Amino acid sequence: MRLAALAAHAALASIAALAVAATAPTPARACTSIVVSRGASADGSVQVTYAADSHSLYGELYFTPAKKNAKGAEREIREWDSGRILGKIPQPKETYKVVGNMNEHQVVIGETTWGGRKELVDPEGKIDYGSLIYVTLERAKTAREAIRLMDALAQEFGYASSGETFSIADTQEAWLMEMIGKGPKGKGAVWVARKVPDGFISAHANQPRIRQFPQNDPENTLFSRDVITFAREKGWFTAEQKDEEFSFADTYGPTDWETMRACEARVWSVFRRAAPSQNISYDWLDGVPGAQMLPLWIKPDAPVTAAATMALMRDHYEGTKLDLSNDVGAGPYRLPYRWRPMRWTVDGATYVHERAISTQQTGFSFVSQSRANLPNPVGGLLWFGVDDTYSTVYVPIYVGIERAPKSFAVGTGSFTKLSWDAAFWVFNRVANQAYGRYSDQIVDIIKVQRELEGGFLEAQPAFEQRAAALYAKNPRQLTKLLTQYSAEKADGTVERWRRLGDELFVKYLDGNVRGDDGKMLHPAYEEAWYRRIVQEAGDNLRTKRLPGQREPDPKAPKAPEGVAPPKPLNAGSIYESHAPAAASAKP
Fold it and tell me: Over 90: is that where the pLDDT of 559 sits?
C-alpha cells in the first residue's frame, strides 16, 4: 500500500576501493495479511491480519458511525495514499458503522498491493483500493456481498489503483480476492476470488497468489466474466490455450526473483511456522529449477488461537537462512531491520536486503476475530496496534464501541506533529530507542508486551460473557461498556508504554546498561562482532608495548572477552514460546 509515497531515505556511503551506488528508487513492497478460516481457529472465529506498512502512514484507528442518508446524499472519495479528491459517489439509504477495518456486521477487509502490469492503471478511475475497502465496509453485511460490491463499485466508477489482493471475511467465511484495472479508457476491473477452505489458513504479501482456479464452482470461487477474455484481447493468453490453464497471477502480475524474495518469502515464513511438520521448502522462492511453488493455503499443525496469530505477525525469519539478525547489516546488537533503499549495487552487481513481516515502517496492524457465537457488538473484535508488529501491543477494540479510544483516535496526533497522547508516537519512541541496542532492549520490551497482552487474553472470556448477557438486557449499556473497556485498555497501554520508554532511556543511557542495583554496567559485544572488528581494523587497533614498557601485571583485570550470542526470541513454534505469558498459544 501507499506505493507512490514510499521513497528511499538514504544512499549508501562510498567506500574506498569499492564502486558502491544505490539504484534508482523503486516503489517499496509493503503490507502483509494472513487469513485463518473458521475451522482452523481454536475458538471457531474467522481471523484476518493486516499490517499497513508505509514510511508515510500515520497509524490511527478510523471510526465511521452508522448513518441514515438523505435522498441524493453523496460521499466524497479521497485517494487513501495521497488524499487527492477523486470525486463523489451516491450514498445508499443506510451505511454501517466501521471501526478500523471491520464493520458492525463483523465483516473485515485487509489488503496488500502488488502493482502488476503498469498499463492497466486507469488514470480516470474514481475509486482507489483504500476507498474501495472503506466504502464496501459501510455497505456490506457478508463477505460475499463485499466481493460483489467491490466489483460493482469498480465497474461503475472506475478502479483507480494498481493490482491488489484483498482479505475479506465475516463470521462464516474467509476469502482472497485479487483485482487489477483495465487501463486508460478501460473502465472497471478484472478479478478472481477464492474462499479459503475450512480448516486452512492462507496469506499474501504484495504478490498475486491465485493461479489456476475452478471456473464452475460459485460456492468457492467467484470471478469477473471477462477475466480470461480480457487477457486474450491483450495477447497475454493465446487462443490456443485452454481456459482451465489460465493463471490470474502469472498473467496480470508476472513475478521475478526480487519480488519473490521480498514478498512471497513472507508467506513462506507464515506457513513454515504454522505448519512446521510440513517442512515447506524455500527452493521455489530461490528460483531452484523444478521446485514446487508455495500452496495457496495450508492446514496448520494445530488449531490457531488469537495469540498464535499475533505471533505469526511477529517475524524476522528467525532461525532461517534469511534471519535478519545474522549478517553484518544487523550491527553488534543484532538489529533485524534495514533502512531503505532495499536494493543496491556494488561493483555492478545488484543486491537486496530481506523484507520481513515485522518492519519499522508499519503504520498500524491488527488481528481480527469475527465470531458467530456472540452478538455482533461483542463478536467483532480487532486486536489493534500501531508501529512495528514485533514491538507493538495488540489491544482489544470491540466493534460495538461508539467512539475510538483517544490514544488511537483520528486527530489525537498527526504524522508531522508529535503528541505524547497519541499511541503512534509513544510506540515509535520506544521502538526507535531500542534500535540502537536492540538485542538487549527488545527483551525488556517483550516482557511488558506479554504482560499486557497476556492480561487482555486472560480477561477476555469472562468479560465477553458479561457483555453478551448485557446485550439481551440493555444494548445501550452494552455500547457504553464496550467503549469504556476498549478505551481503558488502549489508553492504559499507551500510558504503560510511556513509562517503558522512560525506563529504557534510564537503563541504557549512553551505551551503558544499568543493573538491578542501579549501577552502570558495560557488557561486552558478542565475540563474533569483535572478530569482525579485528578482521577489518585489527592491525590499527591491536595493543602494542612501547620500548621499555613494563610487562603487564598478571593479577590485573583482563579486558573483557566477547559474549555468546543471545538465543533468538522468536525462532520456535507459534504454539509454544512466543505466546503472551498469561495466555499460551498452545491449543
Answer: no
Q: Convert the pLDDT of each residue in 408-447 to its tens digit.
A: 999 999 999 999 999 999 999 999 999 999 999 999 999 9
Q: Which three cell numbers stand for residue 376?
A: 455482533
* CA distance linking residue 260 with residue 255, whole number of Å: 7
**Tens digit of pLDDT for each residue in 540-556?**
999 998 998 888 787 77
Q: Who contacts 201 (Cβ-Cβ below 8 Å, separation ≥6)? A: 34, 35, 36, 37, 40, 270, 274, 297, 298, 299, 300, 304
Judging by beta carbons within 10 Å of its beta carbon (0-12, 13-18, 19+), is residue 287 exposed, middle or buried? exposed
- Which among 267, 347, 349 is positioned nearest to 313, based on CA atoms? 267
What residues contact residue 545 under an 8 Å CB cut-off, 6+ apart? none
List Cβ neighbours of 439 (8 Å cut-off, separation of 6 or more). 325, 333, 334, 335, 566
Q: Is 292 left (phi over 0), alpha (psi -120 to 50) or beta?
A: beta
- C-alpha dihedral over 52, 57, 61, 64, to 10 degrees? -100
- Degrees (nearest 5) of the Cα angle 385, 386, 390? 80
**Between helices 475-507 and 438-473, what is the axis angle to 10°?**
170
Burial 105-139 (b: 16+ CB within 10 A, else e): bbbbbbbbbbbbbeebbbeebbbbbbbbbbbbbbb
The C-alpha atoms of residue 73 and residue 70 are separated, in whole angstroms, by: 5
